[in-house]
Amino acid sequence: MIRIVMTGTAFSIACSLQPLVGQDPVIHVLAQFPALILAGALLGGRFRLPQHFTGPSLVLALVSLAIWMLPRSLDAALLDPVWMVAKFVTLPLCVGLPLAAAWSHVGSVLRGFLKAQAISMLLFLGFLYTHAPMRLCNSYLVDDQQRLGLGFVYVACALILWWIIPVFFGQISSNKKDDDNDVSRHGIELR
How many CA atoms lie within 13 A of 8 on its CB side? Predict the structure, then answer.
């Protein structure tokens, strides 16, 4: 029940931002998009996919997200009501839900690769939006485009910190029961 309320809250936040997205690309891409993806991820956290659907789910999520990162898609979502509705449908159902449902089956190497790819893509988009000599999105001004590029860089830096801290300091929520299971699983018992 709590997950459904949280899903509804995230989706409501995304809907409430809709009047502001035409004025600011930072709100459009770095606030509304994550809220829609979070709504789908909260919904998808309840589903457990069979192992053989992990790959197709990840491909669906990554391709859908790549389409929405194109400047043409951002413009279309502002100008065409069909694209706007598609944004509210595809980001939760084709990005958030399959990504969350498949994440439990993804191994640590693939998770690391996907995280590194996300950071490199954000940094690339940040460079592209800040250094492009012309407007990439016809609906936004060059200054807005540069602020969005800086926003991509800030998000990438925040993700780097969030994902690298457990590497140096260990998992925050590590408990003794997990350590005991690892020891007993390998047949070693310390007394």
Answer: 5
CA atoms of 69 and 31, how far apart (whole Å): 14
Q: Which of 148, 141, 37 is nearest to 99 (CA)?
A: 37
Contact of 115 with 164, CB cutoff 8 Å: no
Closest by alpha carbon to 20, among 29, 10, 11? 29
Q: Taken in order 71, 77, 83, 84, is the CA torsion positive or negative?
A: positive
CB 57, CB 114: distance < 8 Å: no
What's the sign of the alpha-carbon dihedral 89, 95, 100, 105? Answer: positive
Q: Please give the average per-residue pLDDT across 125-144, as a whole number.
A: 86
DSSP class of 18? G
Residue 173: per-residue pLDDT: 57
